[in-house]
Amino acid sequence: MKILKKVATRIVIVYVLLVVAFESLLGYNQPEFEGTVVLTTTNDNGDFFDRVLAGLVTNDTLYVRVNHWPRAWYYRVLENPNVQVTLDGETKNYLAIEVTGDEYDTVQRDHDAGLAFRIMTGFPPRHIVRFDPL
């Protein structure tokens, strides 16, 4: 029984370290590829913060999904939903709206991240944000 407990503990520790490493590398490198957007948020002091995110389009509407544990940008969006989004080199102003209900289900179904991705990110709670042009 002690050996089983030690093995299980080590597996959990290795898994947590893998999730931390994966999330840290993504946050540090902020990889850009086709479909990524740069979201610019502000805090209460008026400081600007850029975050590279995967853009999702459903029914000609732009969304992003909160896929990771580091989510300071998401909390800034909730506090100040007036944001800028840069897509394909063009920056526009948007109002960020947290999505729930049927709309959430539709976007989630259209852009399912898959089980492997959820495992690598440690199963963080999912949220979806819609961008309405201003």
Question: What does the model show?
Answer:
The protein has a single domain (2-133), classed as Pnp Oxidase, Chain A, CATH 2.30.110.10. The protein has four helices and six strands; from the N terminus they run H-E-E-E-H-E-E-H-H-E. The protein has helices at residues 2-29, 72-79, 101-110, 115-121; strands at 36-42, 48-58, 61-66, 82-87, 90-99, 127-133. The chain has a six-stranded antiparallel barrel with strand order 1-2-3-6-5-4. Strand 4 (82-87) and strand 5 form a beta hairpin. The chain starts with a helix and ends with a strand. The model has no long low-confidence stretch (mean pLDDT 89).
CATH superfamily, please? Electron Transport, Fmn-binding Protein, Chain A
* Overall geometry: elongated
Q: Kindly, what is the distance between the CA atoms of the first and last residues, rounded to a whole number of angstroms?
A: 61 Å
The first-level CATH class is given as Mainly Beta
- Number of H/I helices: 4
| Physical arrangement of strands within the biggest beta sheet | 1-2-3-6-5-4
At CATH level 3, the topology is Pnp Oxidase, Chain A
Q: How many β-strand stretches? A: 6
- The class by helix and strand makeup works out as alpha+beta
Helical content class: 25-40%
Query: Low-confidence parts, pLDDT < 50 over ≥5 residues?
Result: none
β-strand percent reads 35-45%
Order of helices and strands: HEEEHEEHHE
Radius of gyration: 17 Å
What's the pLDDT, averaged over the residues?
Answer: 89
Q: Major beta sheet, specifics?
A: 6 strands, antiparallel, barrel
The appropriate CATH architecture is: Roll
Number of domain modules: 1
